[in-house]
Amino acid sequence: MKSLSIIKRLLFFAYLFLPMGLIAQVEFRGKVLDSSSQSGVSHASVFLIGSTIGISTDDNGFFSLLIPDGNYEVMVRLVGYTPKLFSLSTLDINPDGYKIFLNPSYQELDFLEVEEQRDPIWYENLSLFKQYFLGKTKNGKETSILNQNILRLDSESVPLTLQVNAHDVLQIENPNLGYRVEYLLEEFTYSTEKGTFFYSGFSRFIPDSTLKRSKGKRIESNRKQAYLGSMQHLIGSLYDGTAEDEGFEFRSIERLKNPERPEQSLIDEAKIRYAQSSNREEKDSLKRNFLRKERISPFVNEVKENSVPSGNLVRIDFDRDGRKFLNFEDLLHVTYTKEMETDEYLNQFRPKKPGWQQSILRLGSREIEIFHNGTYGDRSGIFLEGYLGWEKIGDLMPLDYSYKRQY
After folding, report:
1. 3 has pLDDT over 70
2. Domain 22-104 is found in CATH 2.60.40.1120
3. Which of 87, 55, 99 shows the shortest CA–CA distance to 206?
4. Which of 367, 326, 301 is nearest to 231 (CA)?
5. pTM
6. Overall average pLDDT of the 367-384 stretch
7. Nearby residues of 307 by Cβ (< 8 Å), 6 or more positions away
C-alpha cells in the first residue's frame, strides 16, 4: 500500500509540470432522449456550466464534445423540458457515452409579457435586483437583462425581503466583456432590513463573434482585468500553488466584539422601553444610545500582521489522485496587491483613500474541494465579504478563460 501511495504522488507531480498545451482533452459523448417516448431529442443544448464550452444535439439526439481535464457541472436544456444537471469528472468519464433523459415540462406560465402592465413597485424592485445581481462595478452597470419581463419580483410574501425568480433563462448582455450570458436563476433573496443577499444559478457564456479588431483588443483587456484578482483567479492560483507569485497575500483574522455596539439584549430591552415610554427625552436617549446602534456590526476584525503561506491553506489528498481542498479555520483575510480598489467601490464608504483590494473568506464547512479552473466543490460553501463579495454577475468570467494562454 505504501509503494502504491508513492507512485500516486510521483504521477501527480509529473502531471503538474505538463505544459498547458499537452494537458489532454477528453471526449464527452452521448444521446439525449425524451423520457416518455424514449426517442432522441434534437437541438438540445449540452454545455459545461459557467463556460463557453457546449454543443447542440443532432437530429437524432446525439452529441460529442471535447472537454479539458477537470471536474464540471453539465446542464442539458431544451424549451419544453425540465433542465437536467449532473456532475462530470474527466478522471472517470464513461468512454461508451451517456444516455441522458429529459422529462417534458407541463408547467403553466402565469406571467405578464407587456411592460406597460408593470406597477411602480415592480420597477423599484427591479432596480434593487440589478444592483445586487449584476453589480455596481463599471462592468455591472453596463450589463443589461434583455428579457427582464420574465422576472417575478416579490417583496410582499416575506416582510422586508425581496425574492426573485424567473420562469425561463435570463438573457444577459455584457458589452464590456463581449459575452452574452444565459443564466438559469435558481434563487435570489435580499433582506432590506439586514442588507444581506444570496443568489445562485447556472450560467453559459456565448462570446460575441462580431467584434472588430480594435474593439476586440479593448474587450480582451477588460476580460483580463475582470479575471485578475477575481475569486476564480484566487482559487485557481491556490490550486496551482502560485498564489503569492500572482499577487495574493493571506492573513488570519481574529473577530472581536465591537465596543461601539451595545449587547443585543440591551438593544431588545431598549425597544420595549421605547414602545412603552411617553417621555420624549427618554425616547430620544434610547434611540440615540441603543436603537440606532443596532445597525453597527457586532464585531470588528483584527487582521494579524504575519502572513499565512498559501501552502498552509490547501490540503492535498494523495490517496485520492492528488485532489486538493481549501482548509482554514475561522476567517481568512485576502489582499490582492496588483490592483487598487476602484472609485465605484470606494463611493459606498465614507471618504477613503484607495488601497489594495481586500476581502474576507469564511468556509461553510470544514474544507472545500478546489479545482484547477478556479471552481470549488460546494457552490455555496464559501462566504465572501469585502471586494470579492462586491463583484457580481457583471464581472463573471467563463471557466475556460485563461489570461496565461492569451497573453
Report:
1. no
2. yes
3. 55
4. 326
5. 0.79
6. 87
7. 249, 250, 251
